[in-house]
Design a protein that fits this description.
three-stranded antiparallel beta sheet, globular, alpha+beta
Length: 420
């Protein structure tokens, strides 16, 4: 079976099991190097550790990932099929459960039930006025940059990339900026899947539940009211959880996408030169970021409904399989030989695949593109304020978001767009 990683490996955190901690892999300075070492040792499907004593299969093969996302009759999204959870290996107090525990929403459903719960998301996204959103996001981005532009320095994660998607989503759902920032704090804890994860989840759901109940009495023209009135949602729990999915997934992934695109601009001179020189369009830059560091580096999860084989590994009924988006994008079976060949190529698996493919790719790209374009336009000479190898990462087995991205630029006064 698996051997221990070499001494000093940043992901050497298996707590005596000999398995790599997925959180340590995602938080390492070079997760792709760790994924490649795992692939060399295990092949396309590797066993890892989610938390001490809780194993899972990390699916790193591009074709294998397509198999588990498309074969619902064999690989379920419903965590009530997770053997280690049912047998008590996973504690009811585990920090994994806010991300992996069953909820009455589209994420934990398969087949007809999934299609019933997916339709409200598709209908809600279809109602979004993209031109209006672009204008509002551009104004928000301009105001955020104006708030720090005269300093000549800023943290582009905590003063920009984390705020843009949350306030944009909060506006769509009829929440004010204070509520949006409270949701953001709760979500950072939730996605960390650590000791404060369940408390963050409770706070997040309570804010949204209060909003749902208020809208039932006072409906307005926002996404919350759309979900409340959708005929496919049968009770308050389904309405709440549908909103939970939209805001939590939308915020964390767009935060990561903005952060990684800006980080590439600040740390890869060749990439930055092509972008500033017009040889690389902003959408090409966004896709390059998705290839290198997809917003969900790893996505929980699928659960085997029968004993089977995948990538040469024996998968037992009830086993947990994690979708290794970042590793699959780097699969040598499909990865282009040259980085240039990827520009304009959207065959990456950043948005997953199959019935559960991300429904919000268009608004996510709209918000991310606007945030990156605005920063490029208003801060054309921005540069990283620390050595690139000192960028640290928020703890999470799932998402790879920088703790901070200190930037420096020419100080300037930028007028706000909203008069704030």
């Amino acid at each position: 079976m698996s051997t221990l990683p070499p001494p000093g490996c940043p992901s050497h955190a298996g707590h005596g099991t000999g398995l790599l901690s997925l959180s340590a892999v995602v938080g390492s300075s070079d997760p792709h190097a760790v994924y490649r070492r795992l692939r060399k040792e295990w092949g396309s499907v590797a066993k890892v550790e989610l938390e001490p004593g809780v194993p899972a299969w990390l699916v790193m093969g591009y074709q294998e990932l397509l198999v588990i996302t498309r074969q619902e009759q064999l690989y379920s999204r419903d965590s009530r099929n997770w053997r280690d959870l049912n047998e008590g290996v996973v504690s009811p107090h585990s920090g994994l459960l806010p991300m992996m525990g069953w909820r009455a929403n589209v994420i934990g459903a398969d087949g007809p039930e999934h299609r019933r719960l997916r339709k409200p998301l598709d209908d809600g996204i279809g109602r979004i006025d993209q031109r209006r959103v672009r204008r509002e996001v551009e104004a928000l981005c301009t105001d955020l940059i104006a708030s720090f532009s005269e300093r000549g320095s800023a943290d582009l994660v905590n003063e920009y990339a984390t705020i843009v998607p949350m306030l944009s989503l909060a506006s769509l759902f009829g929440l004010d900026s204070k509520e949006g920032r409270e949701l953001l704090d709760a979500l950072i804890a939730l996605f960390g899947s650590a000791g404060d994860s369940q408390a963050g989840n409770r706070n997040f759901e309570q804010i949204l539940l209060d909003t749902v109940r208020e809208r039932r009495s006072n409906p307005t023209d926002d996404m919350t009211t759309v979900f409340i009135n959708h005929p496919n949602l049968r009770n308050e729990a389904e309405r709440l959880q549908s909103i939970v999915v939209m805001i939590s997934a939308g915020n964390e992934t767009v935060t990561a996408w903005i952060s990684h695109t800006l980080r590439l601009m600040l740390t890869d001179p060749r990439f930055a030169a092509r972008l500033h020189g017009g040889r690389l369009g902003v959408d090409d830059a966004l896709d390059e970021a998705l290839w290198r560091d997809p917003p969900m580096n790893n996505m929980p999860a699928r659960y085997a409904l029968h004993d089977t084989e995948l990538g040469g590994r024996h998968i037992r009924r009830g086993d947990c399989l994690i979708l290794g988006h970042a590793a699959a994008n780097d699969d040598p079976e499909v990865r282009p030989d040259g980085a240039d060949e990827r520009w304009g190529n959207r065959s990456h698996l950043a948005f997953s695949a199959g019935p559960h493919v991300c429904p919000a790719q268009v608004p996510a790209r709209l918000i991310t593109r606007t945030a990156v374009q605005t920063a490029l336009h208003l801060l054309p000479d921005m540069r990283l304020g620390i050595p690139a190898d000192e960028v640290a990462w928020r703890p999470s087995p799932w998402t790879r978001v920088p703790v901070a991205l200190p930037a420096e630029f020419s100080a300037a006064r930028i007028p706000t767009r909203t008069g704030r």
